[in-house]
Amino acid sequence: MQTHDVVIWSIRNRKGRAKPYQLRWKVGTEPKSKAFLTKALADSFRADLLKAAKRGEPFDTLTGLPASMTKTEKAALSWYDFCRKYVRMRWKGAAAKTREAIVDSLTVATFALLADEAVGLSKKEIRAAMQWALLPRQEHDAAPPHLGYAVRLLQKGTVNVSDLADPIMARNICEELTLTRDGKRAAADTTARRRRGLNTALEYAVDLGELAENPLKRVKQKKVARDNTVDRRCVVNPVQARELLVSLSYVGSWHRARGRRLVAFFATLYFAGLRPAEAIGLRESDCHLPDDGWGLLTLEVTRPSSGKQWTDSGTVHDQRGLKQREEREVRPVPIPPELVRILRAHLREFGTAPDGRLFRNERGGVLGASTYSRAWEEARRFALTPRQVASPLAGKPYDLRHAALSTWLNAGVDATVVAERAGNSVEVLLKRYAKCLDGRNDQINRRIEAALQT
């Protein structure tokens, strides 16, 4: 039944409620009400009702809405349901690390988007429940007993996606993105990564028609100078690099060869500039190791490490193509005779895994980050002085790649060649390694001095 008999009252604030702002109106003899998280959302809805009444539109006594709003009204999509919908859309084509980053961004945003009884959940409970709920393979499974209560509250206790149009809510989300688990300020890179992930998700909400525009665009981000350049203090010289490789031979017992089997692995990071994930995926068929002279590695596979829940195989190490390249695209990397000899010796002593991989753990499985990182820490204590051990010098295995690329650039190798071998763009290469370029100041000073004497 429809009627023009409509009375619209003012908004009232019910303090202590999850959605404190309530609008009441009456259609004929039927009282209606709707609660909102913010006063701005309530004002917007009230304005739409008043406009419709002034235009003389009939109101439906069942829904309490005018004809124009009834036609466009659709079931509201909650933030919880939107997150599940978005993750399922992105999951198949995303890398394991990307999946993990997406879930993290959506989960952190959820901290600011709770309603009703879900407001009482702790961030730890929300994080665990959302991580379980957003995994596609869990779609038809019942939540584990220890997560069931939190999952049920989140299913009915998050705001609607349309509510994110409120600028205050968008600001609250952005504030959550800047915090660590213990409430401290997160690193600038972490905040930027979360914001990128959430921004892409909200663009999808716009595509679905849930939002008129991306609310993050209206929240100005404080610009923080991020220094992504490599710290030159972590870069080893060739003598130090070789001492570290020798010291690996003394890690663990000689019988178990725990450190000795990793010498060639770390040598590929230093002499070939490989990323650890690329070295882990290196196969014998990828290697051209002549008796004399330079060899060649033809990289095709990378084995990045992620949690089992993020990979398609259910294992810690995903198998993917090279970073920032098309699937099946390869990257040739010439290697010096010293590395050729090291790899040949490694193959003679340790052979390969059943699938042809050069490097494996003691049980023959994929080499894990914890395994080679522990060995590296022990090697540093053998090779370096106590003062150097306490310093950033070669603090992480990845620093060997930094040392390799810095050495190439300082040797005068053209940046385009270094970038091609390293799998980077020239722009990123020069920006990241700007502080590691030595030997330029004296040359520049001599040129300036000569110019002043003319």
TrEMBL record:
<keyword id="KW-0233">DNA recombination</keyword>
<dbReference type="InterPro" id="IPR013762">
    <property type="entry name" value="Integrase-like_cat_sf"/>
</dbReference>
<feature type="compositionally biased region" description="Basic and acidic residues">
    <location>
        <begin position="315"/>
        <end position="324"/>
    </location>
</feature>
<feature type="compositionally biased region" description="Polar residues">
    <location>
        <begin position="305"/>
        <end position="314"/>
    </location>
</feature>
<dbReference type="InterPro" id="IPR002104">
    <property type="entry name" value="Integrase_catalytic"/>
</dbReference>
<dbReference type="InterPro" id="IPR050090">
    <property type="entry name" value="Tyrosine_recombinase_XerCD"/>
</dbReference>
<protein>
    <submittedName>
        <fullName>Tyrosine-type recombinase/integrase</fullName>
    </submittedName>
</protein>
<feature type="region of interest" description="Disordered">
    <location>
        <begin position="305"/>
        <end position="324"/>
    </location>
</feature>
<dbReference type="InterPro" id="IPR011010">
    <property type="entry name" value="DNA_brk_join_enz"/>
</dbReference>
<feature type="domain" description="Tyr recombinase">
    <location>
        <begin position="230"/>
        <end position="446"/>
    </location>
</feature>
